[in-house]
Amino acid sequence: MKVVFLTLLFGLLCGAQETPAEIDPSKVTGEWRTIYVAADNKEKIVEGGPLRCYNRQIECKNDCEYLFISFYVKFDGRCQFFSEELKRQEGGIYIIESGGTNYVQIIHVTDNVLVFYFENDDGQKITKITEASARGTSFTQEELQKYQELNSERGIPNENIDNVIETGKAPEENSYPK
């Protein structure tokens, strides 16, 4: 039964999502800082929530067959560093275990903006999440508008967007540049 569910979930992710035909690895690799996060279940992404991440570094290998992601997550008031290697599955999906099973897809990338779409299955509920990172500490108005459009396309209310820069802090030695 679980195999049938996962097959269905992969099909939904692949069929319903707008994904770039080709992801330019040179645009993915580098230092990234989480600027915005949004979810249809906002309690999962509030500061201290189980799915609120603070991206630091993303590296794309073999045409993004593998993603190496370094990020922080705050547990019990303390930031913990994680570094994960993700292997691309069928349909451009990556899987990471954190707060349940997360099916992750890059849905938008430019020179300054990288947006991931997640579907988190915690065993009780599926939560839709977008996470938008930048090479700097902010988005232009046009970049924010594009992020809002991506949320709307996925049924994530834009009122659930949280500005991570304004509401969350990473460890001082890894804080966002001023």
From TrEMBL:
Keywords: Secreted, Signal, Transport
InterPro entries cross-referenced by the UniProt entry: Calycin, Lipocalin, Lipocalin_CS, Lipocln_cytosolic_FA-bd_dom, OBP-like
Protein localization: Secreted
Molecular-function GO terms, alphabetical: odorant binding; small molecule binding
Ranges for domain Lipocalin/cytosolic fatty-acid binding: 29-164
Pfam family, one: Lipocalin
Annotated signal sequence range: 1-21
Transmembrane residue ranges: none
Region (Disordered): 149-178
GO cellular component: extracellular space
Family: Belongs to the calycin superfamily. Lipocalin family.
Protein name: Lipocalin/cytosolic fatty-acid binding domain-containing protein
Organism: Cervus hanglu yarkandensis
